[in-house]
Specification:
Elements: no helix or strand
């Protein structure tokens, strides 16, 4: 008797493997009403990415006018 799973065409879909995420800090992020479908991303490598700031400088000032609200763009 044949294995019915071996003939399943959907067996290769919705598979995520070999993903390593480490040392990531994300603060104060709000994402809402996002729909992502039928996306394929392959062969992407990020390496040696640094974000540094002079510790003697004050925190940068962020204005609300600089923020884009997704709800206002509809």
């Amino acid at each position: 008797m044949e294995d019915p799973v071996s003939h399943d065409d959907n067996s290769s879909k919705n598979r995520i493997s070999n993903i390593r995420i480490s040392n990531i800090r994300i603060n104060n992020i709000r994402i809402s009403n996002i729909r992502i479908s039928n996306i394929r991303i392959s062969n992407i490598r990020f390496s040696n990415i640094e974000s540094s700031r002079n510790p003697n400088e004050p925190e940068p000032q962020r204005s609300r006018e600089g923020l884009i609200r997704l709800s206002e763009r509809n």
